[in-house]
Each structure stands twice: as structure tokens, then as C-alpha cells.
């Protein structure tokens, strides 16, 4: 399959999951349209007309005419949810971009890395940010992922969708610790910043510098917008206990 159809991605600034897809699209050199969704004040038409399965992002539409906010995708278009599935789809339709390595062993390593990010890192991050879990739980998962990085380069050597799965979370954690959480949890923020800059995470620091130097990261990462959006989310959480549409806890004590 080769990319010949229009690509539309529904994304949200504050979520790392559509950021994964945007990174892969940029690395593939794809032409695509982005429709932004505000997850804190989600438009009704999005779930009604686009993604009725919970109105989550990202959501990719492959084919059909140009879409505008409020419009339903063509019935003939391919519609794909879930960032991991979309990443694999992009790797298939852009084979020349090598979003997955040709070597089957490296492909397996890339997929295992993504599975670890989804199973462990996201859980540890949510636990730290919203559920009172210790910072060390999050740092331990970063250490586990750092241990499988090669001495240089990216997750499996050349950039791949494994990096697309990891970068959005890594850059958010770094930025939130340095710029946002100091207003909500200053002691943990300071500890986290110092840890990630320490010799313990020397390889991860080099990886971070390498990914930040790539055009795909600079084009898709808006630190200011993400931090403002997360501050809104944290304020709501402290007042209501709402983490997201599917999770809420008792209102945190002040």
C-alpha cells in the first residue's frame, strides 16, 4: 500500500497520544490535515459524528474529501483509532520512511518497547501526577526504559515508531517538572528535575537532546501550550477529582 489518500488527524494539545501520530507523520514526510479537539471542553459533534467510541483522540481518517470541524468523515474513508494501531498503519503506508526497521528482531524490540511504555510508564505517570504515588515509581520505569536504549541513537538504532511512542511522554515529564509542578508539588518537582539531570540518567539525557534536535519534535512540540493546558487540567483535578473522562478520585485534600 502506498499513501495516496488524504490524511486527517484529530488531535489534542495536552494528550501525548495524538502527539505520537504527529511525530510519525512528520518523520514520514506526509501531507496531512489536523483538527484540534479541546479535551477539557469537548465539542459534541466530535463524538457524535467522528469517533462515537468515547470521543477519544487520536483519530485518523484516511481518504475522503477535506474535513472541517463539525463535519462527519466520508463513509468511504478508513477510520482508525488508538495511537499504536495508527502508528503501525503509518509504517505500512509509508514504507520508504522506515518507521519500523526491516530486521524482524528490531521490529520486535520496537513493539516490546512500545508495550512497556503503555503498560508501565503511563501508569506510573498518572499515579505520580494524580494518585499520590511516589516519584521514584516513575523514575524506576524511566530507568528500565533507559537500560534497553542502545549506546547511541534511538530506541532500536534508527528513529522508529518506538520513539514516537516515548518522546511525547518524556518531553512532557521534563517540562511539567521544570515549569508546572513546581506550583503544585515543588519538592517532588525539584527532586525529579535533579534526578533526570543526574548521572543516573546520563543516557536518557543524551537521548532527550537527540530527539529535541529533530525537526519532527520541534514542529510538533509546543511546550507553552501543553503546560497551559495541563495547568487547566490540574486545577480541575484539585477542585473535582476528575483525571479524565474515564477516571476520577475523591477531591484531593488541600
UniProtKB/TrEMBL annotation:
Q: Which residues form the GST N-terminal domain?
A: 5-98
Gene Ontology cellular component list: cytoplasm
Q: Which residues form the signal peptide?
A: none
Cited InterPro entries: Glutathione-S-Trfase_C_sf, Glutathione_S-Trfase, Glutathione_S-Trfase_N, GST_Omega/HSP26, Thioredoxin-like_sf
Mind listing the UniProt keywords for this protein, alphabetically? Transferase
Task: Cite the SUPFAM superfamilies for this sequence.
Answer: GST C-terminal domain-like (SSF47616), Thioredoxin-like (SSF52833)
Q: Which Gene3D superfamilies match?
A: 1.20.1050.10, Glutaredoxin (3.40.30.10)
Question: Which sequence ranges are marked TM in the entry?
Answer: none
As one GO molecular function, the record gives: transferase activity
Concerning PANTHER family, the annotation shows: GLUTATHIONE S-TRANSFERASE OMEGA (PTHR43968:SF6), PTHR43968
Protein name as it appears in the record: Glutathione transferase omega class
Record organism: Trametes coccinea (strain BRFM310) (Pycnoporus coccineus)
Amino acid at each position: 500500500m502506498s499513501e495516496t489518500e488524504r490524511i486527517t488527524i484529530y488531535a489534542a494539545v495536552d494528550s501525548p497520544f495524538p502527539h505520537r501520530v504527529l511525530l510519525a507523520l512528520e518523520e514520514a514526510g506526509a501531507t496531512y490535515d489536523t483538527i484540534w479537539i479541546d479535551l477539557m471542553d469537548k465539542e459534541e459533534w466530535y463524538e457524535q459524528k467522528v469517533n462515537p467510541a468515547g470521543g477519544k483522540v487520536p483519530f485518523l481518517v484516511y481518504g475522503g474529501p477535506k474535513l472541517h470541524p463539525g463535519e462527519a468523515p466520508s463513509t468511504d474513508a478508513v477510520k482508525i483509532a488508538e495511537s499504536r494501531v495508527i502508528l503501525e498503519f503509518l509504517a505500512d503506508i509509508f514504507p520508504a520512511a522506515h518507521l519500523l526497521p526491516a530486521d524482524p528482531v528490531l521490529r520486535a524490540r520496537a513493539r516490546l518497547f512500545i508495550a512497556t511504555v503503555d503498560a508501565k510508564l503511563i501508569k506510573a505517570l498518572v499515579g505520580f501526577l494524580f494518585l499520590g504515588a511516589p516519584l521514584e515509581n516513575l523514575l524506576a520505569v524511566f530507568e528500565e526504559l533507559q537500560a534497553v536504549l542502545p549506546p547511541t541513537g534511538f530506541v532500536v538504532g534508527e528513529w522508529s515508531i518506538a520513539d514516537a511512542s516515548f518522546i511525547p511522554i518524556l518531553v512532557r515529564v521534563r517540562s511539567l517538572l521544570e515549569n508546572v509542578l513546581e506550583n503544585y508539588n515543588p519538592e517532588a518537582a525539584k527532586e525529579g528535575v535533579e534526578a533526570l539531570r543526574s548521572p543516573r540518567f546520563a543516557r536518557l539525557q543524551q537521548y532527550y537532546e537527540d530527539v529535541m534536535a529533530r525537526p519532527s519534535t520541534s514542529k510538533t512540540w509546543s511546550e507553552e501550550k501543553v503546560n497551559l493546558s495541563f495547568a487547566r487540567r490540574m486545577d480541575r483535578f484539585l477542585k473535582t477529582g476528575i483525571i479524565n473522562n474515564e477516571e476520577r478520585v475523591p477531591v484531593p485534600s488541600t
